[in-house]
């Protein structure tokens, strides 16, 4: 709503989009929002369309249908879209690794909904993956070659890959970026802190078995190469200054 007030002010809109990404550099949806708005002939209309698409994201419903019956799933932290799906699945057992101190709160929420869930300390990540039937990693952003997910996700995916367990990347509406914007996001991330101090990290596509998104569950990672926004050159300047 704030950006729609600037639809008649191209300079103000550009500055506002850049400031949003300065504050939230790991949000793929905000990168997509900015890119689509800045390249649209009618920014106000495009903002409304994007907001509706995100609000009506079918990913949680499709994930709900795709999770195997009576499965034990391993998740990290408090994944929003994954949480929406499994809150209604009474047959699923959840092992939530307490990354960033969010896993314990997530487990409490699940238990209030009568979902069988247990919290796992970060040191037990490998064991939790080994005890699961499926690893669900929610992407805050995605692009050619991988996804960006909460810290610990790369290790979880690697353990699952070595154990021949499926790893599903849950990529919600608006989070898939074109190559130039994906690289810009990663460059900003790399310059912000040492890799071991970051709250998010890249999970290589090679460790992911399936992608779940607005188009449902698909094997492989080809969907990560299909962007949901243009590569707005105005945003590339954001990271070259």
- Please give the largest β-sheet: 7 strands, mixed
Briefly note the structural class of the backbone: alpha/beta
CATH topology of the largest domain: Rossmann fold
Shape: globular
Rg from alpha-carbon coordinates: 18 Å
Approximate helicity band:
40-55%
Tally the helices: 10
**Strand composition percent:** 15-25%
Distance linking N and C termini: 28 Å
The spatial strand order of the largest sheet comes to: 3-2-1-4-7-9-10
The stretches of 5 or more residues where confidence is low (pLDDT under 50) are: none
* The CATH C-level class name of the largest domain: Alpha Beta
CATH architecture of the largest domain: 3-Layer(aba) Sandwich
- The secondary-structure element order is HHHHEHEHEHEEEHEHEEEH
**Mean pLDDT across every amino acid position:** 93
The CATH superfamily of the largest domain is identified as: Translation initiation factor eif-2b, domain 2
Number of strands: 10
């Amino acid at each position: 709503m704030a950006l729609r007030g600037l639809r008649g002010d191209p300079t103000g809109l550009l500055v506002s989009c850049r400031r949003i990404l300065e504050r939230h550099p790991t949000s793929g949806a905000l990168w997509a929002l900015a890119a689509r708005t800045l390249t649209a002939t009618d920014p106000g209309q495009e903002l409304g369309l994007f907001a509706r698409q995100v609000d009506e994201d079918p990913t949680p419903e499709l994930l709900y249908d795709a999770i195997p019956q009576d499965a034990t799933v391993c998740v990290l932290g408090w994944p929003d879209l994954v949480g929406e799906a499994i809150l209604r699945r009474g047959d699923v057992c959840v092992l939530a690794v307490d990354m960033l101190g969010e896993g314990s709160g997530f487990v409490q929420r699940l238990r209030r909904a009568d979902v069988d869930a247990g919290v796992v300390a970060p040191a037990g990540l490998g064991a939790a993956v080994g005890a699961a039937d499926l690893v669900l990693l929610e992407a805050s952003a995605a692009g050619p070659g991988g996804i960006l997910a909460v810290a610990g996700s790369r290790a979880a995916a690697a353990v699952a890959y070595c154990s021949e367990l499926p790893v599903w990347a849950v990529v919600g509406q608006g989070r898939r970026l074109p190559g130039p914007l994906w690289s810009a996001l990663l460059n900003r991330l790399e310059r912000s802190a040492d890799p071991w101090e970051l709250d998010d990290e890249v999970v290589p596509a090679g460790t992911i078995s399936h992608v779940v998104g607005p188009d449902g569950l698909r094997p492989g990672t080809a969907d990560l190469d299909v962007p949901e926004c243009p590569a707005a050159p105005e945003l590339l300047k954001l990271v070259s200054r």
